[in-house]
Amino acid sequence: MYFSGQPEPTGAIQCAIQYKPGSEDGDLIALFAHAIRALVAVVYKARTTDVVSGRPDANRWTSEFLLGYAILTVNEARSLLLLLGGGLNRHARIHGRSLWEHELHARRLVEEETNGLALKLRDAYAFEARVFGNLTDADPNAVERSIAHAIGVDDSALIRGDQERRVFGGDGRAAMKDEASPDKRYAGTVKWMGQVAHGSVLAINEIANATNGAKNDTFERAALDDRGDSLLWYCLWPLLRFVELVDERFDTGMPDFLSREQIVERANSINGRLSIVTAEQEAKAVQTLAEHARLKK
Length: 297
What we know:
Blueprint: H1 26-47, H2 57-85, H3 89-111, H4 117-135, H5 140-151, H6 164-167, H7 182-194, H8 201-211, H9 218-223, H10 228-250, H11 260-274, H12 279-296
Helix pairs in contact: 1-2, 1-10, 1-11, 2-3, 2-4, 2-10, 3-7, 3-10, 4-5, 10-11
């Protein structure tokens, strides 16, 4: 797996960030698109960096996985914008869940580099490839060749690995146990954002309430909610976290007009107008994060 050490791009970067005005705030939509462009810029710069030569394995694999998750994040964010523009707000939420999940995994890989978390994730590829191969009756020799190629070894039999979910400490809530307010994070970024896509009974009730009494607009009312601004706001922060992680690790030297600080300043100005998060809520969140950081020391 190589995301780094790639050639310099020639010409314009091909990454269309498409959206059309919907029921959401126009300034917030534009800012979210701007944050995607910032992440695209740092990823392209980072991809030309050599993280292999003379680097310890843990360092190299942490960098490779960070770039892999960042690329996934760009396209999840693009998908979220497209669905919001099409009035499919409830179905856009699942992409917000992916943004937060990718942020959690990438940040933990960076924070736990010295503990070899990235090496465990690398070896998890062997475990997961064999499981998937067995389920699909794939040629075992072909599976082993793919493992050797992905991990960069001659003898894949030496790599056993473990389940990917166990590498990160379990599924969902278990993987978030060391986060600040883990229950709230799980409820907001996993359960709520995933319930429509996964057909939860909570989602069925939500759609029943939305479509009750509808005539010609049943499907529009089933798809559109009034939480688009909140979704964009809360999903802006994992995007910016990725910008920060990639920029710091690869020293991309991103231009000022794409800086995280400027995006945050614009976001705060928009929130002041829309009141998505109140001053009291923000103060409580800051206090919680500060206390969590103190306890981790």
